[in-house]
Design goal:
Elements: H1 9-20, H2 27-33, H3 38-45, H4 49-55, H5 67-82, H6 88-94
């Protein structure tokens, strides 16, 4: 039998905060900040290298990244920048197989 936790005012405020949070980082910002290859960016964004190449292309070869690609990059940036500050319990929740 399913017994979900009820949503109180705190949880409703947090859901509102989360839904309005637009954490994004462009491929150019990430590439400029971190010494990564297109292959690493593809791995982080769960796409192929050709897709990453199109983000940096010009003219007909250009394709903008989707919101979820920029979200993955922003999340990776936070992870790389603040890894030592992330509490162990949160790390276990984010990466249970580490």
């Amino acid at each position: 039998m399913r017994n979900p936790r009820p949503l109180g005012q705190r949880e409703l405020r947090l859901i509102e905060l989360f839904t309005n949070c637009r954490m994004e980082m462009t491929p150019w910002e990430f590439y400029s900040k971190w010494g990564v290859t297109y292959a690493t960016m593809a791995q982080l964004c769960r796409c192929d290298i050709a897709t990453v190449s199109r983000w940096f292309g010009r003219g007909r070869n250009f394709q903008p990244p989707r919101h979820y690609h920029k979200w993955y990059l922003a999340l990776a940036d936070v992870f790389l920048e603040f890894y030592e500050d992330i509490p162990e319990t949160l790390l276990n929740r984010l990466c249970p197989d580490r």
